Amino acid sequence: MAEGLSAVARTGRHAAHVTAATAAGFYPALYLLDRPVAGIYALFTPIAFGILSPLPGAGRDRAATMLRAVPAAAVLVVLGTVLAVGTWPAVAGMLAVGFALAFGSACGPRTAGAAPGLQLFYILACFPPYEPGTLPQRLVGLAVGGALLALAEAFLFPDAPEPSYRGRIADALDAAALAASGVVRGEGPDPETAGRLGAAGRELRLSRLPAGARPTGAGRTDRALAQAGAATRRLLDQLALLAAHVPAPGDTVSADLLRGIAASCTETAGALRRGDRGRRGRTLPGPQLLEEMVADFLKARGGAAAGPEPAPRAVLVRRSTVLTAAVSAVTVRTAASLALGGRERLHGLPREQFWYAAEGPARLLAVRIRGNLTRRSVVFQNALRTALGLALARLVAGSLDLSHGFWVLLAVLTLGRTTAGATWSAVRSAAAGTLAGAFAAGLLIVGAGGASDVYAALLVPMMLVAFTLGPLGGPAWGQGLFTLVVATAFAQIAPVTWRLAEARLVDVLTGSAIGLLCGLLAWPAGARAEIRYAMSALLRSAAPLVRATATAVTDGSGRVAAPALALAQAQAQAQAGPSASSEEPGDPGPPSPGVRLTLHRLRIAEAAYAQYRTEPAASAAETAHDWLAVLDHGSRTLVGAYWLPRTDGMPGLPPEARRWAREAAEEVVAATARAAGFPPDGVRAGPAPLPPEVAERVPAPLLAPLTDVEVWLRALARDLEAGAAPQAPQAPQAP
After folding, report:
1. Which of 60, 288, 454, 487 has its CA 20 to 30 A from that of 518?
2. Which of 624, 607, 622, 618 is nearest to 421 (CA)?
3. How far apart, in Å, are the Cα atoms of 604 and each of 305, 581, 610?
4. What CA–CA distance (Å, rounded) separates 313 from 608?
5. Does residue 278 have a pLDDT over 70?
6. Can you tell me the mean pLDDT for 346-355?
7. CA–CA distances in Å: residue 697 to residues 308, 654, 656, 688
8. How far apart are the C-alpha atoms of 424 and 417, rounded to whole Å?
9. Average of pLDDT values for 36-64?
10. Sign of the alpha-carbon torsion through 210, 212, 217, 223
11. CA 292 to each of CA 227, 322, 484, 496: distance values in angstroms, whole numbers, following the listed order
12. Is the pTM of this model over 0.70?
């Protein structure tokens, strides 16, 4: 109940902003200056940025985004005005502009939020009559409307700030610090703490955030925040495992590192809340960097292994889990520092994991664009569908010479969805709402006639009601009330008859039919069809990387060698086809193709998952999977490839131990390949534990790194079993 009232209040405030800005620009332009063209643009600019564009943030954040978008809108107005000379130039421009703006959603939430509104400026300007002499009025109306809406957003009933992802990471790190300290003091299993850590990890899922608050941009800050969030989720998962098991008494080696983890988490959380970078651009966990503590831990663990009494297997497993938690904490600290503007030198860290740290904004943007220029990218699919729909609508409206034909394109823009089913639902509701709105508008026009003062008095309350109830009530309310708004506004610009309502109804129905046709012909299933392919491709590329990593650890390469990864890439590309040519870049120097391929597939799968969470729930007969567990598997595979091969191999490893490592890795590889097909009965992926008789023959200094491989393979198996297990479909959470 409280959440519903809060949503109504937030929508009402937003409607008040748009209404105030529209009235403040439209009435003076029309009645004081007698500039109807400027009045039209002053009317539609707040509607474009305030209603059509789901801009991220609150208040001043949205105002800043609008002001940055106004120059781009001016360029589109100029372009549309010039191309309005004929139907075919306008159609060609619509195709290019429509694709570019829709594809720009890959660049981040602000670009994605502003894109629909920016589309409207080209749409308005590219329709007849061809009057380039009115361009100054158009630009003035645009500037005035944008400035007034920015002022209203910033100062009129400002919204409370939205929770940031940075703050959520800080809260999760506080929970991690408390849990790490508790594990040091623990006297037994603590399932309650494990449950709290699991809940904190779920709060970091991007589906729990408004779309505009998700760190999905192409820049360094968003990439670093996304990496920090993923690493924090892994850290919470690892600490939950430690809290759920009996601690090993007297394990001072692990206790010291756990204290370092707690200190690092606390310091990083504080830096994220303050927004600073710490000394010299680094978020410090205390007097000693956590990387140095990890190095000390490895030395102490090696020294303990060389002692007269080797540690029991349970202690070795616990230490390996603590080590993986420390690795996650190092990743969080480094990524958080990068997100806050630090310039990490990455001492002792795998540079490929933070490949974006030294790249400039233009390079990162080019990487994101190139990575999505594939037909398997949902961003590319949506951009192409939108561009074709808008271009076809412009061709139909121009060829048939429809009155107020821009309403046809506006219907395509506002009613198009990522699935044909969702588009049909929106179109059906919008048609009913437009019919009711057209009938009401016809009655209003017949009753008021040419009395412009009646329309002037009704416009403000009409907009306030429409912009409040429309977003809350759905397409039917939105289209019906907006029909009344445009009828009331246009009746003040020029004499109208009831035929205006008829033209509005015809245009909306025409645009709805075009949008529905595009939805049926171009990727009608949306991300529900694409996500299975994307996740399968991710698993197929990760499988050979698991083998290559295990081989690099046990055979002495010291890192995931390029030859092994070249084989991994060749195997993955042979299975997945040529669509994997776009890749995220690695660190300068010899590339790691398998890592790059898996990272590219992970980005494509993440985009498909993000869209999947916004689409209507699947039918009850359809089964779904825990796609987030599949993403975790890909991320954990990459982390293992970055961190595990840190020695010069194990030259003294007995053949039976080497054979066990190879067979355990192959079991996970085979399970990953089976999971890529998502069999209906799921996947069993438990690699055989290191046999005690084999462990006894392994030299003590080699047993600990071999246990690290075992713990990593077990974690991968857990992710596989969770991701491949069928489950009932769940309704997507509100973005």
Report:
1. 487
2. 618
3. 43, 12, 10
4. 41
5. no
6. 72
7. 15, 7, 9, 17
8. 9
9. 89
10. negative
11. 21, 15, 67, 77
12. yes
